[in-house]
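### Sample
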Amino acid sequence: MSCFRPLLLLSCLFPAVAMASYPIDVEVNADGVTISATSDDVSNIATVTVSNNGTNAAECEATFISGPERPFPRRTILDAGESTVLTQPFERAVTRVRVTLNCKAK
């Protein structure tokens, strides 16, 4: 029974590690469109929900940057009133993510 005690303790720590959160800084550059963005994380996956609150369609590109990994661009086209979620998984442990969101009228 004593050999199971360390395993039980270790298994209790996994949910705490999986729920670890990190800051996601989002910079929005909207040229001629009304865009809002919110961020969230799930383990090593950063997410940004992009909403087009304007009356024109918008072309958006989000670039996810996390430390030494190369920047990852994600592109989408949003019609007026539409939202979408852009995601980026990371290979390494994440301490902070910077996202630059550039949008322009289509």
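The chain has one domain: 21-105. This sample (3-phosphoglycerate kinase) is used throughout the tutorial notebook.
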